[in-house]
Amino acid sequence: SAHRLGDGGRAxxxxxxxxxxxxxxxxxxxxxxxAAVVAVVMVQNEIGIVQPVTAIVAAIRRRSPDCHxxxxxxxxxxxxxxxxxxxxxDSVALAGHKLHGPKGSGxxxxxxxxxxxxxxxxGGQQKGLRGGTQDAPGAAGLGLAAERAISAMxxxxxxxxxxxxxxxxxxxxxxxxxxxxxxxxxRAPHILALGIRGVPATALRTVLSSRGxxxxxxxACADRDSKPSAVLTAIGxxxxxxxxxxxxxxxxxxxxxxxxxxxxAEVAADLxxxxxxx
Length: 278
Fold this sequence. Notes:
Layout: H1 2-7, H2 25-31, E1 37-41, H3 53-63, E2 68-72, H4 84-87, E3 91-95, E4 106-110, H5 136-173, E5 178-180, E6 191-197, H6 201-210, E7 216-218, H7 230-234, E8 241-247, H8 254-277
Helix pairs in contact: 2-3, 5-8, 6-8
């Protein structure tokens, strides 16, 4: 969306995180001087780090009080505490499919008094912000999914951390060389990002998918299929380290994680040996 605005002639400023993956609130605030809109991802989708959005919003308000501040909470809602009043943003976006809700459903929280221009108009539905017939079944499904996610969050956090610990235990037992990119206390509990040395990210993803394990991967160097990741570059991930992201849901079982971890360890070891031999 930002790049599309840039194509339309608007100035776009991107703020890189520090070497720990965290955005510096004062750096963001400095970049936001004279800005109309600032958008921040609360839980970074590649490595799962939780950004200090409350501090970021406060820093921006001190420098640019009229700026509209938007928080993308798609990966945060139902996974980490989310208090819109405490954060102080103007708008917060949620995505239904991240909560086991209907794909295509979502919600936008708006601060009282915040003004938006609709992308398209029609019959004046949703207070004139989004014209067209509303998807009542999708909204109902999103509401139910949100209730389930919030009620399950305390126990789910503990279980997700245990599942992540099982993955790393299996890799340790199989002598796979890796590092956890974000410590447990800084990440959303449902996302585990690992850097595996000597394993190309694209090959890892391809072989794992052929074995029935579906993950997201990335690299700090570009290959024929993708651009280098700005986040992985910022945190200093070496070019010879492939990143794999595993995500856990409310219905993920320990048996599934055990199986996936074993396959991941086997594939990583095999690809590393092939690369060394080659």
